[in-house]
Fold this protein.
Amino acid sequence: MDYKYIEQLLESYWACTATEQEERILRTFFQQDQLPPHLHRYRSLFAAEEQMASTRLSDDFERRLLAQIGSEATPCRARRISLSHRLRPFFHAAGMLAIILAVGMAAQRTFEARDERAEERFSEETAVPLDDAAVLQPSQQQAAAQSSASAMDTLTTAGHDHEAESKQ
């Protein structure tokens, strides 16, 4: 038997373009006892549709449902939320930020004070006291001046030699 027409109807059904008449044809086809094996998997779908279509709620369904839930439910009033309640999360966040900034600034000042005290102690420990022994005698001052002058002469002659070489 050729099932091309049924397969075409199934394709239009899956594409959501089938008419109501074509859907009825498919439902009646899948109610048959003998179906080809490749179409047998669609039988439960169309049988479930038929079963759901035949199921109806009874007339007293709503009454029974309300009796189970509780017929008189207390009405729920909408709560008014003030602006302060709406902004409360922002207030909490601002408070936390203020605490974090205050702790950070206190820690920074503490560390800066420690650094200043450490620098003062270091400068006091390494300071060279100036007394009579530290002052150079006039003969020593002349010797230091001559050695620095000879060092300067050496540097200037080396500089002139370098200039002469670069000109050549």
Notes: Residues 80 and 86 are 11 Å apart (CA to CA).
